[in-house]
Amino acid sequence: MNAADAAGAADAAGAAGAPGSAPPARGLPSHLTLLYRGPLASCDYDCPYCPFAKRRDRPETLRADRAALERFTDWVADREREHPGTRISVLFTPWGEGLVRSWYRTAMVRLSRLPHVERVAIQTNLSGRVEWLAGCDLDTAALWTTYHPGEVTHERFLAKARRLVELGVRFSVGVVGEPDHLEAARRMRAALPEGVYLWVNAAEGRAYTDAEAAAWQGLDPHFHYSRHPHASRGLPCRTGDSVLSVDGDGNVRRCHFVDAPLGNLYDGSFLRRIGPRACPLASCDCHIGYVHLESLDLYDVFRGGVVERVPAEFGRPPFGLLPA
Ligand code: SF4
Ligand code: SF4
């Protein structure tokens, strides 16, 4: 969370409604997107721009993370019976790396096979094996991958990406727009099939000159959305209504950046608080947040791929010929 978000989070308590005045429970929307983040915060990489680099989780944290993820997965599975008519998309956004843990792979496989789950995706550094994806329904499972040039060689990351293409997995590849990543990003863009989208996130706190921005825009045709934070206070945002953030205890918030609680997933109390409401924060600078701002056109830009960050023009595998 940036400083503006932290300052605005206090406003959010009011936006969520005063205790005791909660309206009657609503049903779920026809399509619900859940952004799930459990207690896991360990990662096998050591990116200098990440507060979770090389962190180790204690065994009890890993056990708690596994139990929490399994509970969440059960809840999603049970919606087929308890909320028929609601389709669900899930994006796992762990603080660290989830796919090196068996329970995230198991959850991806299970959720992908449920008829009422439209999409299940996870943010990953792609350090782990990928063969398990063959067990997923690949019309539903997808990956949001990030290439960290300081942590993995070009060849090793590209080999994983090529294997995803061979398996028919839908995925995006991202790079953090640090100046010393530019050549590596260009090389990766040239090596990936044209049909694989490479996105660029503006580096935290970095102001880009027009020339610098043009260089990144040449790699990611949608970089201009990331270059500057989006002023968001008072604007309609789908979070809190058809998009919800869920933590390992089932606490529901509208998004990962607004701290005000909306209730709990598992006791159903969140159903009394969800509904359309404006963003309470000054700005939104993270793609997993502002993609849901109704004032932007990103649901059109990413139609069919909002969760895994694949724009409409990049579509499904086969992605075209693999460069030699
Ligand atoms: S791969 Fe992601 S979670 Fe791991 S250290 Fe790098 S930025 Fe952090
Ligand atoms: S624009 Fe939406 S996602 Fe971003 S901080 Fe505001 S409410 Fe959250």
TrEMBL record:
This is MoaA/NifB/PqqE/SkfB family radical SAM enzyme. The lineage of its organism: Bacteria, Bacillati, Actinomycetota, Actinomycetes, Streptosporangiales. InterPro entries: Aldolase_TIM (IPR013785), Radical_SAM_STM4011-like (IPR047771), rSAM_sf (IPR058240). Signal peptide: none annotated. Transmembrane segments: none annotated. It comes from Nocardiopsis aegyptia. SUPFAM superfamilies: Radical SAM enzymes.
